[in-house]
Design brief:
11 helices; 0% strand; mainly alpha; globular; MetI-like fold; 231 residues; single chain
Length: 231
């Protein structure tokens, strides 16, 4: 418990004194995680909606892949993305490895199946008559899909919250594709692992407390958005 209390005091000190390195890590963590969550939202919701509202050969296989993706080990994602971005890899010419962009890509790969899978489940849980009613009123397939997603917005936003939680706490892929470079790709999770390896448990606890506070703040904002009911 002594390490915890020292870590709590250290967390307050680092934030209150405006420690530059700490704030750079916090800002980068937030920027990478929110960017990855946004990408997963833009990819996952349309994919989940398409799987829920269309029928095609091999659909069950694709849904199985999405469900498998919801449990992908982050370290495996990091390895695959690293191989793709390696200088001799298919995307090596873009020189993205060990950059924040590479971290966003890896984390989006982790979060997108979560958002897609929960969007799929949310739309499948809707009353089928609602879609028939929209079609009877002359709504185009795209407009009907939009209204159905709006109707299922609460569980869809729950999927977004789950996706954010998956990426803000992720460490394996972040280290593999980002390299944990000071001032470049070091985020709260990778910095915590580094400090534990150095034996600086008070700083590691401080970073963990900051990470938990940041995660709570973002999830609270998303929860308020989810629970808001328009007049």
């Amino acid at each position: 418990m002594d390490d915890f209390w020292r870590g709590l005091v250290e967390a307050v000190r680092l934030l209150a004194t405006g420690d530059r390195e700490t704030w750079e890590i916090v800002v980068l963590s937030l920027r990478v995680s929110l960017s990855a969550t946004l990408v997963s939202l833009l990819v996952g919701v349309p994919v989940g909606a398409a799987l829920a509202l269309t029928r095609f050969p091999g659909r069950a296989l694709v849904i199985g892949l999405v469900h498998t993706g919801m449990g992908l080990p982050p370290v495996s994602v990091g390895l695959i993305v690293s191989l793709l971005l390696w200088r001799n890899g298919p995307l090596g010419a873009f020189r993205l490895l060990y950059t924040p962009t590479a971290m966003v890509i890896a984390q989006a790969v982790i979060a997108a199946p979560v958002v897609a899978g929960l969007t799929l489940a949310a739309l499948q849980a809707l009353d089928p008559r609602l879609r028939l009613q929209l079609q009877a009123l002359g709504a185009s397939p795209w407009r009907a899909a939009w209204w159905l997603v709006r109707e299922a917005r609460l569980p869809v936003l729950a999927g977004v919250i789950a996706g954010f939680g998956a990426v803000i706490s992720e460490v394996g892929a972040a280290i593999m594709v980002g390299g944990n470079i000071k001032g470049e790709t070091r985020v709260l999770t990778t910095a915590t692992v580094l400090e534990v390896g150095r034996g600086n448990f008070d700083i590691a606890v401080a970073l963990t407390i900051v990470l938990l506070a940041l995660t709570y703040a973002v999830n609270l904002a998303l929860t308020l958005l989810q629970q808001h009911r328009p007049e």
